[in-house]
Amino acid sequence: TARRELKAVRAIAPLCRTGANDSTIDGVLEFAAKANQLLGPLRDRDALTRSIHRISDRFAEGESRRVVRTVLLATLIFGESDRRDDAAFAGAALDRARRSLRQARAAATAIVEDAGFDAGHAAALLARSHRACMEELDASLQSGDLARLHECRKRASFIALALAPFEDEVPPPVRRLRSRARRLASALGEDRDLALLDVEMRVARTQLAGSPLASAIDDALRLSRIEARARVEDAARDFLRLGRGRVRRALAGLLAAG
Fold first, then answer.
1. Tens of pLDDT, residues 49-58
2. For 184-209, b where at least 16 C-beta lie within 10 A, e where not — what string?
């Protein structure tokens, strides 16, 4: 939850630039980025746990699900936590993140008190983000470049979060942009989480060498990744169908009216 709130701050703050408040905006982004970085390892642990539950749910028998879940959690989560003294690390990271958030909140208060808002800047920034995401997405799907897909996820998440405060009072092109960006970011996030689990599985494969359980888990993971990639491709096709000109005009009209 904390990371989602930080992402929202990082998405909305750049829209509020007026030229006169650049140092304030930079302060918000710096503190939010610092807190987000501190929470990164915790996010990866949570992502691994979610992926383990997804994999174990593929097994039809309840006992098999329980064994797979227990083995992977013990191997990849709890064992690693013991080696890194994760509880102590998590507490320290959260304390530092809270301090950063307090500083960010003070900077954000200054933004709220600033009556100026450059609608043209905000609309142009969102339109550029939409265009860049489409171009990056199209290129990364053709090349299969995972690093570029990760950048697409961040851009799509930025668009969805930046438009979230407008709720349902938006023109249809903006509503479609927001919903498809959210769906794209979610699909890419799930694909990334499963890729992370695939990397971490090397630990489990070593410890389960020769066990039929290892190959069963690998089969489940492979099928999950195939399905996740299909969801990415479906979400990408829908996102790429959005008309740039229509979206750009709708964004300009929405923000000027606000």
1. 889 988 998 8
2. bbbbbbbbbbbbebeebbeebeeebe
